[in-house]
Write a structure and sequence with these properties.
- By secondary structure, the chain is an alpha/beta fold.
- The protein has seven helices and ten strands.
- The chain has a six-stranded mixed beta sheet with strand order 6-7-8-3-9-10, with helices on both faces.
- The N and C termini lie far apart (42 Å).
- The mean pLDDT is 93.
């Protein structure tokens, strides 16, 4: 059962994740992320960032501790509620994950058709988010006809078309050149300014240092730094 809205969209209390092989991915993590925040998750490879993201999506369960995401208790929620949690989230990956045999319009519309949105609403919403990401003119193109930056814009449009409360982005600029990366970050800033919470895992030191958003740094499964206007803090 989803609890009433509260100021924190994510709350981890004493969260640990130990895999079957004994590897400790997260160790007694305590953090809260408020609605409307923009938070970078940083750390070296193997620090625990991927586990952190997978827990938010309920792809895996914590070994111990309390985890609330958008009002859902991740440990206690029944399996039939998982789709409702995920519909309240927008997820963006480094590798875009577009459907190669569908056009730009169809890729974005797919996210709405899955939840059986009315046809008229799909048309209006898809056109609106394609305007946001600057791809309205390419709605008939297939992913293979687009640049990497354009494909990531489609992925962003797909993620926001159902008006999620929370965007989770996992290395969204990892395959992009610096200029294109900043174009993508400009879109994220506009989405955040409209009230959507954004949690982004990234290795991009320049972006983190320049944007001066809240930074959560993970090392060996622990939160070692939580800065309101932080930098990357690692060697690029």
């Amino acid at each position: 059962m989803k609890s009433p809205n509260e100021i924190n969209i994510i709350k981890m209390k004493n969260i640990s994740k130990i895999y079957d092989n004994g590897a400790v991915a997260l160790d007694k993590v305590d953090i809260s992320i408020k609605r409307g925040e923009f938070v970078f998750i940083v750390g070296t490879s193997g620090a625990g960032k991927s586990t952190f993201i997978k827990l938010l999506l309920r792809e895996i369960l914590p070994t111990s501790g309390l985890l609330l995401v958008n009002g859902y208790d991740i440990n206690k929620m029944p399996r039939h509620e998982i789709p409702y949690l995920r519909r309240s989230l927008g997820v963006i990956f480094q590798d875009y994950r577009l459907l190669p045999n569908k056009t730009v319009y169809e890729n974005v519309a797919f996210a709405m058709r899955v939840i059986e949105s009315p046809r008229r609403l799909v048309l209006r919403s898809v056109n609106s988010v394609l305007d946001v990401v600057g791809l309205r003119a390419k709605y008939k193109c297939f992913p293979s006809q687009l640049s990497g930056g354009e494909q990531q814009r489609v992925a962003i449009a797909r993620a926001i078309v159902n008006n999620p409360s929370l965007i989770i982005a996992d290395e969204p600029t990892g395959n992009l050149d610096p200029e294109t990366s900043w174009e993508i970050m400009d879109i994220f800033q506009r989405i955040n300014a409209a009230g959507t919470t954004i949690v982004m895992a990234t290795h991009d030191k320049t972006i983190v240092d320049t944007m001066q958003k809240r930074v959560l740094a993970i090392e060996n499964g622990c939160i070692v730094r939580d800065e309101a206007s932080g930098g990357y803090g690692y060697e690029a």
